[in-house]
Amino acid sequence: MVELPKVYNPKEVEEKIYNLWLKSGYFNPDKLPRRHRKPYTIVIPPPNITGELHMGHALNATVQDILIRWRRLQGYKTLWLPGTDHAGIATQNVVEKELKKEGVSRFDLGREKFIERVWQWKEKYGNLILEQFKKMGCSCDWSRTRFTLDKEYVRAVKTAFLDYYKKGWIYRGKKVINWCPRCQTSLSDLEIEYKEEKGKLWYIKYPLKPKTYNLKPKTYIVVATTRPETMLGDTAVAANPKDKRYKNLVGQITVLPLVNREIPIIADRLVDPKFGTGAVKVTPAHDLQDYEISLRHKLPIIQVIDEKAEMTKEAPLPYQGLKVLEARQKVVEDLKNKNLLLRVEDYLHQIPKCYRCATTIELIPSEQWFLKMAKLAKMAEKPVKKGEIKFHPKSFEKSYFDWLKNIKDWCISRQIWWGHKIPIKNEADVLDYNPPTTRQGDVLDTWFSSALWPFATLGWPKKTKDLKRFYPTAVLSTDRGIINLWVARMVFSGMEFMKKIPFKDVFLHATVLTREGKRMSKSLGTGINPINLIEKYGADATRFGIAWQIMGGQDIRFVEDNIVMGRKFCNKIWNAARFLLMQKPPLINADSVRRFSLIKKNLTPADKKILRALEKTIKSVNGDLENFRFGRAAHTLYDFFWHDFCDVYIEKSKTELSFMKAKVKMRTKFSSPKQKDLKTKKILLYVLLNSLKLLHPFIPFITEEIYQKLPIKNKQRCLMITEWPK
RNA sequence: GGGCUCGUAGCUCAGCGGUUAGAGCGUUGCACUCACAUUGCAAAGGUCACUGGUUCAAAUCCAGUCGAGCCCACCA
């Protein structure tokens, strides 16, 4: 008979059990027993290969593994497809940082050598990430692991691009776009984060050009701006057509100070009369609204800021080559000297920053590739509106719709080196696709490729068996921060290329914050590596502690206390099993254990009570899991197991079991104490076994380890594929 | 500027119209004999942010105030 150690030691169990699972092959849906028919798929949100996983990933991995293990037990043909994302700009940046320590830039290295370095990085961190998932107990099908830049994926991206292109939805054009001067690339609107900064609002006098020789020398129109340096590129001054103050001035000409360019005063509805003086300077090259105005009024576009955020040759000589902030200072000084600066106010405004390196974004005109969004936005909207795709919590659907409603065309080209090369050189010819190491020219926005994830990972554009069986996927579990960046784009990509939704449910999990409510980040030193927790408490304890805290809020302030609870709970389970095994229960047929029920005769009130409590727990846990209430399910299981089972039933059973018979009063309705003893042991085993099943999705290692030791005839190879209690 | 979420025990969070408001962790006291001291038993600890309203009844619904966070937005 098996004897368990007094204290559960995860270190002795986890690796062994994980190997047992791997050897069984059951992570792979093709190798599941015949009972598992109906497919249930989750594709993992592929982590960026920028570094190791953090608590947010740990939470999401826990959520997905709970769902997958639960469905597998229910008899689904479960596929959890793992993988990683090349994460264009983000990964390029971390490798550049690494190079910087060696005193080299990516330009010193050259494109080819640099890409080689990134692949080395990918080898290291890509594998590290997958190892972390394994340590957490994730039951992914590793034979189907994908990377957003692997060979087949390259083909998928190319196919998608050409599909759009042939439809005329992809076009090349020069527009004012977001430009990161540090990353040296364009960015989409979603890749910008606004940060509040204290600035100034400068009121500048623009002298009017006299209409006739009746000079009125001191006549000016005053404009307000937060960016005086851009005035060097002004090609008009504008006021709202309804603004009476400027009625007489519209149509006149001003002479742009410092430049001496004659520019018109125009009327445009985009101008807000309430802001500043009601008259604005129009800089079409460096402001989106001004760009729009310029198109309407056919104004020239003069680019005075270049890709390095320095003043161009279009600016007057004294400013050329100055950095934006230097130019700003000089412009202000020069205006002051010419007595053209009316006044200065403090002004709090939102500065656009690069979401990957926090450098201030410049708006500059640039030749880029765009994807038309009008039809795609509608395609993304429809299935959510119709309820075919459900968001949990539902409130997030609003921000999804809002974004789709006033969407602009998506700038999909990036001027970085790490990514999918744009498969067309110009609008005229379609080029063959080169392998990533020898590419030239622009690459695609990394989100263009991740948008294809739910079907590209299953073999698309080939019509594979996997694609037929496992698409659409069941649930997408992800962070609310990428609803538009990723989720929306997967939806329209799925509709466009598969004609089917990519997933039915979108579970937006909470964001994991530090105890103080700060964002977990490596650079701030606030990050927690889940591996450290696993080392300290075990994977099950870590998972249970995390699940315990998933209560539906937007944020979770992570506290280790819950992991401590998880460890204690695991120990409790361990010892309950230990107790049972110490009673030397007879070998019991698995079927008879499975079918134990209230119908059975000779049950004591305590027996009935625990069996009823178990039934209630099963129902409640099922309901919770159906509705993504992981924390509640964890609490229910905890209460049932610790209190109903251990505190009450096991304690009571001690007076029933024969080893205690000296203290027990015989009850006449049993023919013998031995029979009573057997019945109690059966119930203990029955409740324990079902508890193990219910707990398995949350704490797979310990439950599997105990299952392996239980005295059951006709035992399955793994608890993982036994039947979920109904 | 628009939208969303949240302010409940020392800490992290449940409860979301109806008996003395709960859990985990922490704290205090007692108890190691036969599953477990990663345990058991007992206890302390809360004007449920504030103000007003609806109701027989409000932590729970409504309005407003204050505080925290997130998302969206071309106001120079």
UniProtKB/TrEMBL annotation:
<dbReference type="GO" id="GO:0005524">
    <property type="term" value="F:ATP binding"/>
</dbReference>
<comment type="subunit">
    <text>Monomer.</text>
</comment>
<feature type="domain" description="Methionyl/Valyl/Leucyl/Isoleucyl-tRNA synthetase anticodon-binding">
    <location>
        <begin position="607"/>
        <end position="726"/>
    </location>
</feature>
<dbReference type="GO" id="GO:0004832">
    <property type="term" value="F:valine-tRNA ligase activity"/>
</dbReference>
<dbReference type="InterPro" id="IPR009080">
    <property type="entry name" value="tRNAsynth_Ia_anticodon-bd"/>
</dbReference>
<keyword id="KW-0648">Protein biosynthesis</keyword>
<protein>
    <recommendedName>
        <fullName>Valine--tRNA ligase</fullName>
        <ecNumber>6.1.1.9</ecNumber>
    </recommendedName>
</protein>
<dbReference type="InterPro" id="IPR001412">
    <property type="entry name" value="aa-tRNA-synth_I_CS"/>
</dbReference>
<dbReference type="InterPro" id="IPR013155">
    <property type="entry name" value="M/V/L/I-tRNA-synth_anticd-bd"/>
</dbReference>
<comment type="similarity">
    <text>Belongs to the class-I aminoacyl-tRNA synthetase family.</text>
</comment>
<dbReference type="Pfam" id="PF08264">
    <property type="entry name" value="Anticodon_1"/>
</dbReference>
<feature type="domain" description="Aminoacyl-tRNA synthetase class Ia">
    <location>
        <begin position="16"/>
        <end position="424"/>
    </location>
</feature>
<dbReference type="GO" id="GO:0005829">
    <property type="term" value="C:cytosol"/>
</dbReference>
<feature type="domain" description="Aminoacyl-tRNA synthetase class Ia">
    <location>
        <begin position="438"/>
        <end position="558"/>
    </location>
</feature>
<dbReference type="InterPro" id="IPR002300">
    <property type="entry name" value="aa-tRNA-synth_Ia"/>
</dbReference>
<dbReference type="InterPro" id="IPR002303">
    <property type="entry name" value="Valyl-tRNA_ligase"/>
</dbReference>
<keyword id="KW-0436">Ligase</keyword>
<keyword id="KW-0963">Cytoplasm</keyword>
<dbReference type="InterPro" id="IPR009008">
    <property type="entry name" value="Val/Leu/Ile-tRNA-synth_edit"/>
</dbReference>
<dbReference type="GO" id="GO:0002161">
    <property type="term" value="F:aminoacyl-tRNA deacylase activity"/>
</dbReference>
<keyword id="KW-0547">Nucleotide-binding</keyword>
<keyword id="KW-0030">Aminoacyl-tRNA synthetase</keyword>
<dbReference type="GO" id="GO:0006438">
    <property type="term" value="P:valyl-tRNA aminoacylation"/>
</dbReference>
<dbReference type="InterPro" id="IPR033705">
    <property type="entry name" value="Anticodon_Ia_Val"/>
</dbReference>
<keyword id="KW-0067">ATP-binding</keyword>
<dbReference type="Pfam" id="PF00133">
    <property type="entry name" value="tRNA-synt_1"/>
</dbReference>
<dbReference type="InterPro" id="IPR014729">
    <property type="entry name" value="Rossmann-like_a/b/a_fold"/>
</dbReference>
